[in-house]
Amino acid sequence: MESQVKIFSGIATEVLAGKIANSYGQALGKVEHYRFSDGELQASYEESIRGQSVFVIQSTMPPADNLMEMLLLIDAAKRASARHIVAVIPYFGYARQDRKDKPRVAIGAKLVADMLAVAGATRVMTMDLHADQIQGFFNVPVDHLYASTIFLPYIKSLNLENLTVAAPDMGGSKRANGYAKFLKAEMVICYKQRSKANVVDSMTAIGDIEGRNIVLVDDLVDTGGTLCKAADMMMERGALSVRAICTHPVLSGKAYENIANSKLTELIVTDTIPLKQESAKIKVISVADLFAKVISSVHNYESISGNFIM
Fold it and tell me: Less packed terminus of the chain by CB within 10 Å, N or C?
């Protein structure tokens, strides 16, 4: 019997999962989420998934319950005899912990990869990992999608003259270079110095800024400190406008306040993580159609490279 696709969601990503399922052409599968009085989670499938291709959608941003629920859903699918179990993780949490950058620290991204495999995931689908090499932490196939597929058409639609793509730090230069090449634009790299995580002490830029429309490119925005400091610095140095595109809107701490008070024209993000509040400066572009197309390709053993434009 040929397996059928069944799409399920964890609590944290129900809205996005509903959009993905709708784009795919079916309703979300039935899952019961139960929480004991002490806060312990329990998840169960309320329909048969024996011999089926199960796609479990959940971003693993904090709290850790989101990751734990994903693991429980994968384990439940394995014990219910699903044929294939694909962990669809639009935002892969713990990706910033991808190496030992000082003694006696964990490599969180590798630990999460191991837990997903042990739980029973036979494949992982995610978007814009903080570091591409995290794919090598998995012993199962990884479909790594890129938000550039939806961001680039939006940037082109703005018809900005004197366009310059900027990397907010040295680590993002490869991503920014890809955007700049595709858009045939100039490129700028910001250099920042930190005393500790989420705190930028100083920042400068390498490249021409005056009279340019700047688009900052990054994989995620957390407190917004780096982006806002970069935008303010560039406007002071004569930029015509500064926009930022970031795949994952983590937006913790005073992020919304920082963005509202900054000189950013707008911040364009995706819905891999639901926004905590509305903001006039934040535009959300959905990744639902892209994930639905790739789910269809994976199920039918088709190439997914045609879904990428960069």
Answer: N
Digit-coded pLDDT (tens) for 65-81: 999 999 999 999 999 99
> pLDDT tens digits for 80-116?
999 999 999 999 999 999 999 889 999 999 999 999 9
Q: Is 192 a known active-site residue? A: yes
Catalytic residue among 192, 196, 281, 293: 192
